[in-house]
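Quick one:
INPUT:
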């Protein structure tokens, strides 16, 4: 973390007690319109950790964007020590085009640490790594399900390998906490290589607001701020303890056709339970789908037309059942 009397970003020096909005210029559209990323920096008078709150890595994932917007609008980000770096939208290109990717078709979250002369996605990642990552000690990266897939509110991180990440996950206390391995080129993996802990919160479906998930995200963020000693308020008490899952798996379609689910997000499915059916569109055949395992439905494909191999349900097995 930088010295308590100095925090520099985008050519600015931000002093303790200051609140600044700066804009990181990424590039220009073909029209010449400048594309920049707004970054909020909120500093307490007292020194402490720097917490990153970031959303919009994928431009169509609006729930995280709305989460940070509400935290800012409700004036809930007032650290008593340390600093908060809040980025509501990293991928401005995708946000403008209702798209997960940037215009070159690449995923920013597979492009870290990036390169100043690389693809557009790589340049976005590089600018973030140059300007923001050096400041950060911990982070929460907000995401949403994509491609007609909805996620039940869940936290993803590597569990059991370092105390800091485990403590952040426990403090956030999402309805589900998943052990999720690092993926090459992701922000989480790149931060891990630098000794910094980033946890990922997922909820809802792309291009649709998920009100319960947004409120879970806000509550979890406030609990993390309290855990880090950045807020005196403890944050809302979770409705129930987080269900920790070390195993999770997508069930995939063995047949093409029209998928109808007989369960919903959050339901518990027993091994052998019929969870839906796939039918041909002509009324000639229908196949009942039985679950090969027991677990909670934490992800759901809302697309009724499916091909062989398409993901249908994401099931998570509680840690107590994995032994």
């Amino acid at each position: 973390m930088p010295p308590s009397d100095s925090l520099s970003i985008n050519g600015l020096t931000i002093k303790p007690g200051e609140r600044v909005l700066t804009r990181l210029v990424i590039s220009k559209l073909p029209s010449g319109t400048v594309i920049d990323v707004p970054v909020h920096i909120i500093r307490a008078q007292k020194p402490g950790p720097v917490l990153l709150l970031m959303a919009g890595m994928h431009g169509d994932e609006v729930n995280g964007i709305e989460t940070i917007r509400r935290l800012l609008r409700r004036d809930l980000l007032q650290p008593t020590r340390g600093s908060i770096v809040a980025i509501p939208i990293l991928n401005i290109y995708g946000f403008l085009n209702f798209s997960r990717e940037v215009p070159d078709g690449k995923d920013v979250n597979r492009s870290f640490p990036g390169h100043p002369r690389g693809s557009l996605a790589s340049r976005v990642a590089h600018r973030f790594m140059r300007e923001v990552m050096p400041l950060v000690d911990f982070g929460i990266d907000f995401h949403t399900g994509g491609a007609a897939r909805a996620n039940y509110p869940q936290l993803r991180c590597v569990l059991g390998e370092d105390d800091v990440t485990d403590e952040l996950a426990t403090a956030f206390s999402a309805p589900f906490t998943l052990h999720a391995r690092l993926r090459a080129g992701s922000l989480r993996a790149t931060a891990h290589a630098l000794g910094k802990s980033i946890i990922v919160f997922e909820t809802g479906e792309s291009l649709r607001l998920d009100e319960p998930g947004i409120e879970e995200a806000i509550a979890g963020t406030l609990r993390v701020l309290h855990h880090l000693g950045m807020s005196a308020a403890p944050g809302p008490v979770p409705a129930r303890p987080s269900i920790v899952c070390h195993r999770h798996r997508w069930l995939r379609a063995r047949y093409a056709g029209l998928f109808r689910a007989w369960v919903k997000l959050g339901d518990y499915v027993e091994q052998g339970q019929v969870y839906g059916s796939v039918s041909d569109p002509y009324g000639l055949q229908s196949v009942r789908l039985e679950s090969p395992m027991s677990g909670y439905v934490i992800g759901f494909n809302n697309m009724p037309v499916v091909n062989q191999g398409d993901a249908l349900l994401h099931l998570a097995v509680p840690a107590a059942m994995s032994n």
